[in-house]
Write a structure and sequence with these properties.
Elements (H helix, E strand, L loop, with lengths): L21 H23 L1 H25 L9 H11 L7 H15 L13 H12 L35 H7 L9 H8 L5 H6 L11 H13 L5 H21 L7 H6 L3 H8 L10 H21 L6 H18 L7 H13 L1
Helix pairs in contact: 1-2, 1-3, 1-9, 2-3, 2-4, 3-4, 3-5, 4-5, 5-14, 9-12, 10-12, 10-13, 13-14
């Protein structure tokens, strides 16, 4: 009896196939961001909602159009560009004009992602690229803040939101006098601490009932949403942990040296965009290192840069620049921290012996 031939399929390692595809992971990241988005709308009303809608729509439309132009299959179905739009909107002031948000969203996707080849090839986080553009091109609107939970926020926009394209943003001073009769400082906790040495109570920082960017105010909510991704093994918690631990220890050292000048470490953790950056931006799978040691070096670098920029830089916040610099250093970190290949040392030693003989 003749044995039937067997089909043997040979493939390169790894042979294990993970059940979660890119679109599943990205969709879960969107799910994790939804509570932060809902809270932003609760705090800032229609303006925050419009900001989210415009940023997501422009990001998705930009990627789709570039795919059509290049004759490729549209990649918007992997949900990654939705994350870019949500993160960009959450890092912008609630009163930011919508046309400026649209331009920043286009720049973030076109230059930060499409220019490098799309998903899997971007060197830096596209949402932060868009925010960096907004910071450089629209400096004044990027430092215009509105009060959280303002009366009438669900029935009217903040006036500057609907500023016409290429026109100066409408002043919101009269609107502030009407909705906040008792006055509004118009500064974030980081700015108050840096320029006036005025601390903010810890509870408002954790809960998020403070002025700030649309989705950066509630550090506690952001951290809880990040835990969902960590438990689902869809985010590298080592990066988040190393950033937060480094920022806590380094700021604690400065606070111990001079508590009258430098903020306490808990203020550092819960203020500004550190939590959002550490949880959802620095953990970008493409722009972060690949090695086990590399993710720790990467996180420590970002944590150090955040504290140094905040304490000694000209701006009160440094998370965006710290992460972008970390992204830029990521390929080098991965290369330097590559584990030694099994047997490589023996081959080198044998080669030296052969050369010597």
């Amino acid at each position: 009896m003749k044995a039937s031939p067997q089909h043997i399929e040979l493939r390169s390692s790894p042979h294990y196939r993970a059940p979660d595809t890119v679109d599943v992971i990205m969709r879960n990241v969107v799910y994790a961001l939804l509570p932060v988005c809902v809270f932003a709308v609760y705090l800032f009303g229609l303006s925050a909602l419009a900001l989210l809608v415009v940023c997501v729509a422009v990001c998705v439309g930009t990627e789709h159009l570039f795919c059509v132009w290049a004759g490729k299959r549209s990649t918007v179905g992997d949900w990654s560009v939705v994350i870019t739009g949500l993160l960009l909107a959450l890092t912008l002031p609630p009163a930011f004009p919508l046309w400026m948000a649209a331009v920043s969203a286009f720049f973030g996707v076109a230059v930060g992602k499409i220019f490098f080849g799309g998903l899997g090839y971007n060197v830096m986080n596209p949402a932060l690229v868009g925010r960096a553009f907004a910071q450089a091109a629209f400096t004044l609107p990027m430092t215009t803040w509105s009060p959280p939970r303002a009366p009438g926020r669900f029935t009217e926009f903040i006036p500057s939101t609907l500023t016409r394209p290429f026109m100066e943003p409408v002043s919101i001073d009269q609107w502030l006098d009407r909705v906040v009769p008792d006055g509004f400082a118009g500064a974030t906790p980081l700015a108050l601490m840096k320029f006036a040495q005025t601390p903010t109570d810890l509870m408002p920082l954790m809960v998020g009932t403070i002025p700030g960017c649309a989705g950066e105010t509630s550090a506690l909510l952001i951290f809880i949403c990040g835990l969902y991704l960590i438990f689902r093994k869809m985010m590298d918690g080592r990066i988040t942990f190393s950033i937060l631990l480094t920022a806590f220890l380094l700021s604690g050292l400065f606070y111990w040296v001079n508590p009258d000048v430098y903020p306490d470490p808990l203020f550092t953790l819960f203020s500004g965009g550190l939590m959002l950056g550490a949880v959802f931006m620095a953990t970008d799978m493409v722009a972060s290192p690949e090695t086990r040691l590399g993710v720790w070096v990467y996180g420590i670098l970002i944590g150090v840069l955040v504290v140094i920029i905040r304490l000694f830089g000209g701006l009160p916040e440094g998370v965006m620049y710290a992460i972008l610099l970390g992204n830029a250093a990521s390929p080098l970190i991965s290369r330097v921290t590559q584990p030694r290949i099994y047997g490589a040392a023996g081959k080198k030693r044998k080669k030296k012996e052969n050369n010597a003989s």
